[in-house]
Amino acid sequence: MVTFPGSLDDRDAQRAVRLAGGEPVALWHGDADLRGVDAVVLPGGFSYGDYLRCGAIARFAPVMQTVIELAGHGLPVLGICNGFQILCESHLLPGALTRNAHLHFRNRDQRLRIENTSTAWTNAYQPADEIVVPVKNGEGCFVAAPDVLDRLEGEGRVVVRYADGNPNGSVRDIAGICNERGNVVGLMPHPEHAVETLTGPSTDGLGFFASVLTAAVS
Amino acid sequence: MPRVVVDVMLKPEILDPQGSAILGALPRLGFDGVNSVRQGKHFELEVSEPVDEARLRVLADTLLANSVIEEFTLRVLP
């Protein structure tokens, strides 16, 4: 679990990892050492105050140089919200996240459809499963060139899609995507906020963290 | 000391909701006849001589602009 200056959801995501049966390890943006972890989560928040562009500065943090290198060798990496923005800025995932089309910060429980259950982070779900997790972003409008979108769709790399309404104007209702190998996944909604009924709308988000435990073992 | 000016704009095909919001406010303020607003970023860098414009372009392309959604122009001022 990487903490950048301005990360908000690192503690929640650590808790989600623990509830799923994993052992969270705190990583620091300024330290290139990943401490031998089996997977990396880039949490939500506003790294470096979202200065310049969301994720644009975090991309060059020392820890990201190691994450980028090991992601290329198959290390599972999940980027949630700001983490998704960092993955796009790092070119580990295609496209970009821009200002919500309606300009409003959107904060609500969101229904999502899982469209790819073969990634390191979604193998605990069944095809076409629908889950409800919080979404909360101001710059979550996913954009990419039409040929990139066609390739993503053709290769089954749209991992999650908004159902029951698109909260930010993302093209083709795309909520999350993965790289070609399926080890790097980014999504705007927050599965780590839906792991306990006391605080979340469901426990549907646990599947992301349970999935990577299976992926790490296999 | 030479100054370098980099202007970053969203590509024309990328929706600019901030520009649209500004455009929408203009008639309410009594400014008519504006047909489009696009919002961008303006950077001013002071650099040491000699100025390596090619290197500065790499800088702009690497950090100041995201080539997925943005394009930039770069000018070196004396």
Low-pLDDT residue intervals, each spanning 5 or more residues of chain A: none
Give unreliable regions of chain B as ranges: none
**What class would the helix/strand composition of chain A place it in?**
alpha/beta
Structure classification of chain B: alpha+beta
Described by the principal axes of the CA atoms, the overall outline of chain B is: elongated
Q: What is the second-level CATH architecture of chain B?
A: 2-Layer Sandwich
CATH superfamily of chain A: Class I glutamine amidotransferase (GATase) domain
Strand content of chain B: 25-35%
CATH topology heading of chain B? Mth169, Chain: A
Helical fraction of chain A equals: 10-25%
* Count of the separate structural domains of chain B: 1
Largest interface: A-B, 19 and 11 residues
Mean pLDDT over the full residue set of chain A: 96
Strands of chain B, total number: 3
Q: Tell me the number of structural domains of chain A.
A: 1
In the sheet with the most strands of chain A, the strands line up as: 3-4-11-10-9-6-7
CATH class of chain A: Alpha Beta
Write the layout of secondary structure elements.
The complex is a heterodimer of chains A (218) and B (78).
Chain A: E1 2-3, H1 10-19, E2 27-28, E3 40-42, H2 62-71, E4 77-80, H3 82-89, E5 96-98, E6 106-114, E7 130-137, E8 141-143, H4 146-154, E9 158-162, E10 174-178, E11 184-187, H5 206-217
Parallel strand pairs in A: 1-2, 3-4, 4-11
Antiparallel strand pairs in A: 5-8, 6-7, 6-9, 9-10, 10-11
Chain B: E1 3-10, H1 17-25, E2 40-46, H2 53-64, E3 70-77
Antiparallel strand pairs in B: 1-2, 1-3
Give a brief description:
With 218 residues, chain A is of the alpha/beta class.
Can you give a write-up of this model?
The complex is a heterodimer of chains A (218) and B (78). Chain A has a single domain, classed as Class I glutamine amidotransferase (GATase) domain (Rossmann fold, 3-Layer(aba) Sandwich), CATH 3.40.50.880. Chain A has a seven-stranded mixed β-sheet, covered by helices on one side. Helix content of chain A is 22%, strand content 22%. With 218 residues, chain A is α/β, with parallel strands linked by helices. Chain A is built from five helices and eleven strands. Chain B is of the alpha+beta class. Chain B has helices at residues 17-25, 53-64, and strands at residues 3-10, 40-46, 70-77. Chain B has a three-stranded antiparallel β-sheet with strand order 2-1-3, covered by helices on one side. Chain B is elongated and about 50 Å long. The termini of chain B are close together. The mean pLDDT of chain B is 95. The chains are: A alpha/beta (218), B alpha+beta (78). Chains A and B meet through loops of A and helix 1 of B.
